[in-house]
């Protein structure tokens, strides 16, 4: 059985380097996994605890259903002003009142000019939500525009090897068995 991977892009820009990375990975690993590419963070309303109840805004329901249906989540985000992009952070905030990321296998990529602070923040946020990843499950790609061409292909051998290691770990980690209780 092929793993179902939800790939969330942390950028709202069309043809961002982050979307190119996810599209390239989905194409390269299409035989090993089923990918659901999610580029909808700009469709989500601003997080508001008063709206975090049934009925949820449709865009929130869609995101939550996609996370729940996935065996694993692959995130690729840029860094804006030494932090996670606001739109992406907003998307993650819509999951805080759930257990969607509890014990969910994730792989985390930060691709940005520097990216160090966002990468650190992304790991902290996902750890707080209970997500899990392995030793090779996070990757910081600083200065991605010199490591990836306009088709999203990795031109830097070290980056390609790191992405390969990250994906091998994501694909080969067993999917946890579903609990019998709700």
Write the layout of secondary structure elements.
Layout: E1 3-9, H1 17-28, E2 33-38, H2 58-69, E3 72-77, H3 86-93, E4 105-112, H4 116-128, E5 138-142, H5 157-172
Short descriptors:
Rossmann fold; alpha/beta; 5 helices
How do you describe this structure in short?
The protein is α/β, with parallel strands linked by helices.
Would you kindly provide a written description of the structure presented here, covering whatever features stand out?
It is a single chain. By secondary structure, the protein is an alpha/beta fold. It has a single domain (3-172), classed as Flavodoxin domain (Rossmann fold, 3-Layer(aba) Sandwich), CATH 3.40.50. It has helices at 17-28, 58-69, 86-93, 116-128, 157-172; strands at 3-9, 33-38, 72-77, 105-112, 138-142. The two termini are 23 Å apart. The model has no long low-confidence stretch (mean pLDDT 94).
């Amino acid at each position: 059985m092929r793993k179902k991977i939800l790939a969330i892009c942390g950028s709202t820009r069309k043809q961002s380097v982050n979307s190119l990375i996810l599209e390239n990975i989905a194409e390269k690993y299409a035989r090993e996994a089923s990918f659901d590419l999610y580029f909808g963070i700009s469709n989500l309303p601003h997080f508001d605890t008063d709206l975090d109840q049934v009925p949820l805004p449709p865009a929130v329901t869609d995101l939550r259903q996609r996370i729940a249906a996935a065996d694993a989540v692959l995130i690729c985000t840029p860094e804006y002003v030494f932090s996670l992009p606001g739109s992406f952070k907003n998307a993650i905030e819509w999951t805080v009142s759930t257990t969607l990321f509890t014990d969910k296998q994730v792989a985390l990529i930060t691709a940005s000019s520097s990216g160090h602070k966002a990468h650190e923040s992304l790991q902290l946020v996902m750890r707080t939500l209970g997500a899990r990843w392995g030793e090779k499950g996070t990757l910081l790609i600083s200065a991605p525009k010199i490591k990836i061409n306009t088709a999203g292909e990795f031109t830097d051998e070290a980056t390609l090897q790191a992405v390969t290691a990250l994906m091998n770990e994501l694909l080969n980690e067993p999917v946890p068995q579903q609990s019998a209780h709700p």
